[in-house]
TrEMBL record:
<feature type="compositionally biased region" description="Acidic residues">
    <location>
        <begin position="88"/>
        <end position="98"/>
    </location>
</feature>
<feature type="region of interest" description="Disordered">
    <location>
        <begin position="76"/>
        <end position="103"/>
    </location>
</feature>
<dbReference type="Pfam" id="PF02620">
    <property type="entry name" value="YceD"/>
</dbReference>
<feature type="region of interest" description="Disordered">
    <location>
        <begin position="163"/>
        <end position="184"/>
    </location>
</feature>
<protein>
    <submittedName>
        <fullName>Metal-binding protein</fullName>
    </submittedName>
</protein>
<dbReference type="InterPro" id="IPR003772">
    <property type="entry name" value="YceD"/>
</dbReference>
<feature type="compositionally biased region" description="Basic and acidic residues">
    <location>
        <begin position="165"/>
        <end position="184"/>
    </location>
</feature>
Amino acid sequence: MKELTRTVKSPGDLGTEVVGVPDDATIELDLRLESVMEGVLVTGTARAPLKGECVRCLEPLEQECVADFQELFSYPDADDRSRPSAESGDDAEEEETFSIEGDHFDLEPVLRDAVVLSLPLQPVCRDDCPGLCATCGARLADDPEHDHEDAVDIRWAALEGLAETMKDGEKDTPRDAGDDSQEK
């Protein structure tokens, strides 16, 4: 077994549209390499800075991502009989296998999967972020007393006008039963 600590440059494109690791950032890796029968078992933790924006108020945010991972890197001449295999015609998904090339292994795909999967789905600047006003878009954290008059749906505006005339004392005048000239 061997324990290593490394600082590497971000491979780029580690993130989503809302939050991610900047391309110029450095990622700190704490690794434990263990020799096993099939290859080298790599267990590690990655710490990386995150930049993005709050999904509620759209303010910029900076956080830290901590991602744990574990992967087996197989020796190139490992006996395939020692690995469990699915029978042909079986609907089991085939696992992706990683291998050691010389004395090196490529940790980037494992690191990418671990970091991207550990990202928050909806990052917020703080847990109780109130977000933006649905009417005018004002940031509610800046003005907690922010309020608007109740807006009337445009589809009901004509009825509101009728209600106003009823309040003013105007009433509909009854028509004669036979007179339908006003309907035309």
